[in-house]
Amino acid sequence: MKDEKADGVAKSDIDQYRVKPGQKVALAGIDSRQKIPPGKKAIKERQQGLLQRLSDLQYLLFAEHRRRLLVVLQAMDTGGKDSTIRRVFGPINPQGVNVTGFKVPTADELAHDFLWRIHRRVPGAGDIGVFNRSHYEDVLVVRVHQIVPENVWRKRYRQIVDFERYLVQTGTVIRKFYLHISRDEQRKRLEARLQNPRKRWKMSRADLAERQYWDHYIAAYEEALVRTSTRWAPWYVVPADRKWVRDYIVASVLVSTLEDLDLQLPLAPKLDDITLN
Ligand code: AMP
Ligand code: MG
Questions:
Q1: Helix or strand or coil: residue 237?
Q2: pLDDT tens for residues 83-115?
Q3: Choosing a second label site near 216 at 20 to 30 A (CA), which of 48, 50, 52, 242?
Q4: Peptide linkage before 94 cis (omega within 30 of 0)
Q5: CA 30 – CA 245 distance, rounded (Å)
Q6: Which domains does the chain possess?
């Protein structure tokens, strides 16, 4: 195991991305094109070391088999959830990671409370669970399109906070990321998808129509962030117009989080009296 510290974003610097409990967030005022010094080339090199460190920490989490890490990814369409998963979690042992994408709820899911399908996908001991969309859709798309009345979705902020507190008290560590892209960046990415035959399949009429609701989504995100970023399950607003910045911040937060857990290999059993034949 490598024991030198990989240099991610310093702890004090990571904190600028964290939404402090009760802090109002104005997304328009947060620069989604932010760069990180000393620049792309150096950061991409550091990212290699950081991802190695993340892999090593995942091994310890798995070996310890006690705690769990839940990573929630939310973003506007084309915000980069899939590519973050590929680039940050790709190098990790697939046996220790499970990714769940939450789609439009099925009839069975709709027949239950909104957290039912979520709870079932919370990682088990030693695992990292990654949510590509999450229970937050139930205060985002559901709010924007008035799928349930306001008096129903409004109660969900509190229900989510209580649910996450319960998970944390029972051994799950939670980190939540909002990948923040600008409206202009979304237009560029949608245009690129439309022109790229390998990506065009990802597009639907609905995705293009959804862009009209940009301001509604921003308002819904801002309220979700302020109401549900807690000491125990913080949100990070990640500048995500530049992929290398986005990946580096997400990896830095995860490495720092796992380092704080002080993960230990289990005690090895005494086996010296056994002779292998
Ligand atoms: P994608 O991430 O492109 O596979 O799309 C998944 C779709 O499912 C998105 O349009 C989401 O808005 C939608 N979705 C996810 N969760 C919910 C939910 N709880 N209620 C309604 N739509 C949802
Ligand atoms: Mg889609």
A1: strand
A2: 999 999 999 999 999 999 999 999 999 999 999
A3: 242
A4: no
A5: 14
A6: 11-260 (3.40.50.300)
User: Per DSSP, what are the bridge partners of residue 224?
Assistant: none
Cβ of 92 below 6 Å from ligand 1: no
- Check if the beta carbon of residue 6 is closer than 8 Å to that of residue 46: yes
| Atom nearest to 103 CA in ligand 1 | 8
Name the residue with the closest Cα to ligand 1, atom 4.
Answer: 103
Put simply, whether the predicted model's pTM sits higher than 0.90 gets the answer yes
Calculate how far, in angstroms, residue 214's C-alpha sits from the geometric centre of ligand 2. 15
- Closest C-alpha to 263, from 20, 55, 38, 52: 55
Nearest residue (by CA) to ligand 1, atom 12, is 141
Residue 254, φ and ψ in degrees, nearest 5: -70, -40
- Among protein residues, the one with the nearest Cα to ligand 1's atom 15 is 103
CA of 181 to the centre of ligand 2 (A): 15
36-72 burial, b at 16+ Cβ within 10 Å, e below that, comes to beeeeeebeebbebbbebbbbbbbbbbebeebbbbbb
